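Sequence, please.
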């Protein structure tokens, strides 16, 4: 177990969080969420023991091992990819080398050599030990993990220095998975992965035996791997026993409950103030006034703060200009770079109102296809036809180069939507992580990620009926992705996008284009539909004997219909559990409020005048006892449903 007690972290005068407590037990599946700057990475480092808190204590179990994938680039050099990954098993490889040395030594010794017996005994011990941890399968295991994360066979013998920072992060992730620590801390593990590698990582983590804590802006990844959410926001630390989708619903329910509690608290404060104002000068009631003043002081110090609703902002894209049903068509299109054929004989029609997602491994030609659609690349052979009245807006990472370096962030957006109020412009920029004085920064001093976010914001605000987007979710946090998702859902025009964010593909698109082997294949439906149809294709191919790849022995054959029914039942049961918890919390809050009133000096059992009226006193006592029993019963039920979720 990792235990943090009363943790305070401050940077100068700024307190990041105060009196924070966190226990990470065995076999946990935790996501740490919160806005950028809330302190998630800092809390990671405190939990790992890499950073000392300003105050507080960290304790952990003896013998536990931690693994950490940071968000920043790792430094790896001096080995090949395979050697770097195998370095995780340095002790096991050392044993294997000694086994080889002993084997060579035994081959040179005579049978009657008195030194032979201890050599044979040592060889047997090491051989048994090596087989105990499947030592002869280590390299096979390493190759499997590297392949799952996107490394090809020819990459394994290449020096690590030949690879980009993103590929080095994949290699660092591979080493962590192979180490199998007791506690695995992953900070944005999907940032440098394509969709196929993300699927592999999720499958690997589902079989991981230790505890896992992640920071991630990938909602699909969190939903598929996580069972518990900790939210860090404005120094508050809140627990949700659910995945990310359930967390959003529960957070809103808790907020609504807080609003009601705040209203009740405000009424109580006003009532106490009226009592104090009325009887302040009364000598007889001086003690009661003094008691109310203390009560008022306590209530004011414990004022309920209402977090901002996640559903309060909609970007609202401009209305799509009118156009015909046919928008863009590729006919027998081939694209080559020199002798290399990227796409061959492509036929595809983009029609009005569709939301299209492009999928495929890195290098398959997705971005090339987008560029041809957007007119940024010419077709080598074939024909591209853009129909009349098409207003096209194209976003890619290089779009940031088209920003005006002489303008501020706010001026850049105002140039796109000159009729909007400054308040509305600042609200829009806030959704793209530009807040406070950031909106007055000159464009020329922005980082690459900040420029990309600003370019995306400006692209979305252009009046277009065809949006073509290449990785629009890069550099967005979870809130920014939710704003983008909602905007694309509500957009009446046509969207064609490439993104590694499977949640947006699942929620937004109605058509999937798979790019592979220089060709495209069109699937109707969203990402879940695509996966289902791909699995059916694979199973039918195996049944016909067309799939040379055997089904992995470790995976059970999936009954997809039953799996969908089971998932639906689980979702329904979980929603029912969360609804019951919410109802219980509401009833508990009302009972606690009533109980405080029954105990109060204002007409309650602490009021001396009550005891002058025996009948009234008896009624209050009976109500107090009944309330107490009912409160305990509801608390027991609340604990039952919470434990059921765990």
């Amino acid at each position: 177990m990792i235990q943090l007690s009363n943790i305070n972290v401050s940077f100068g005068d700024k307190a990041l969080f105060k009196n924070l407590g966190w226990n990470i037990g065995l076999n946990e599946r935790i996501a740490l969420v919160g806005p950028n700057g809330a302190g998630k990475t800092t809390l990671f480092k405190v939990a790992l023991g890499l950073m000392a808190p300003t105050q507080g204590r960290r304790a952990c179990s003896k013998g536990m091992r931690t693994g950490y994938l940071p968000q920043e680039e790792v430094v790896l050099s001096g080995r090949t990819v395979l050697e770097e990954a195998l370095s995780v098993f340095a002790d096991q490889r050392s044993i294997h080398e000694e086994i080889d040395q002993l084997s060579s030594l035994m081959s040179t010794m005579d049978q009657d050599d008195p030194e032979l017996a201890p050599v044979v005994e040592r060889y047997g011990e090491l051989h048994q030990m090596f087989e105990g941890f499947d030592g002869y399968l280590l390299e096979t295991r390493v190759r499997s993990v590297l392949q799952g994360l996107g490394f090809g066979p020819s990459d394994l013998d290449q020096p690590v220095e030949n690879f980009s920072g993103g590929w080095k992060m994949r290699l660092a992730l591979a080493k962590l998975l192979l180490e199998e620590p007791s506690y695995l801390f992953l900070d944005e593990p999907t940032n440098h992965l394509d969709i196929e590698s993300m699927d592999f990582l999720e499958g690997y983590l589902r079989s991981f035996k230790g505890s896992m804590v992640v920071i991630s802006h990938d909602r699909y990844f969190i939903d598929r791997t996580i069972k518990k959410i900790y939210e860090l926001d404005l120094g508050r630390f809140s627990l949700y026993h659910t995945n990310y989708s359930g967390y959003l619903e529960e957070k809103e329910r808790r907020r609504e409950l807080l609003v009601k509690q705040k209203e009740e608290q405000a009424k109580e404060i006003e009532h106490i103030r009226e009592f104090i104002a009325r009887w302040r000068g009364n000598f007889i009631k001086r003690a009661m006034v003094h008691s109310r003043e203390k009560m008022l002081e306590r209530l004011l110090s414990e004022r309920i703060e209402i977090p901002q609703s996640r559903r309060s902002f909609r970007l609202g894209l401009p209305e799509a200009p009118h156009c015909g049903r046919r928008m863009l068509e590729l006919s027998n299109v081939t694209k080559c770079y020199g002798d290399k054929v990227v796409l061959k004989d492509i036929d595809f029609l983009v029609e009005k109102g569709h939301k299209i997602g492009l999928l495929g491994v890195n290098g398959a030609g997705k971005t090339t296809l987008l560029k041809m659609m957007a007119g940024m690349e010419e077709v080598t052979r074939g024909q591209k036809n853009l129909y009349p009245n098409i207003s096209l807006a194209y976003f890619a990472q290089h779009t940031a180069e088209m920003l005006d370096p002489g303008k501020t962030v706010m001026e850049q957006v105002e140039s796109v939507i000159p009729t909007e109020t400054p308040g509305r412009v600042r609200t829009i920029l806030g959704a793209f992580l530009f807040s406070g004085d950031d909106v007055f920064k000159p464009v020329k001093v922005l980082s690459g990620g900040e420029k990309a976010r600003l370019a995306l914001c400006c692209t979305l605000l252009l009046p277009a009926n065809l949006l073509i987007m290449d990785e629009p979710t890069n550099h967005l946090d979870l809130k920014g992705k939710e704003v983008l998702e909602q905007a694309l859902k509500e957009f009446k025009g046509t969207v064609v996008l490439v993104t590694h964010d499977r949640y947006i593909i699942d929620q937004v698109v109605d058509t999937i284009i798979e790019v592979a082997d220089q060709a495209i294949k069109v699937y109707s439906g969203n990402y879940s539909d695509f996966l289902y149809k791909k699995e059916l294709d694979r199973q039918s191919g195996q049944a016909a004997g067309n799939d040379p790849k055997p089904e992995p022995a470790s995976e059970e054959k999936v009954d997809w219909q039953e799996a969908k029914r089971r998932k639906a039942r689980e979702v329904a049961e979980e929603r029912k559990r969360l609804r019951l918890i919410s109802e219980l919390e509401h009833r508990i809050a009302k009972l606690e409020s009533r109980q405080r009133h029954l105990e109060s000096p204002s007409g309650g059992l602490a009021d001396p005048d009550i005891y002058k009226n025996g009948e009234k006193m008896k009624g209050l006592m009976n109500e107090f006892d009944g309330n107490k029993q009912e409160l305990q019963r509801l608390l027991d039920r609340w604990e039952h449903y919470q434990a059921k979720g765990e």
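The two ends are 17 Å apart (CA to CA).
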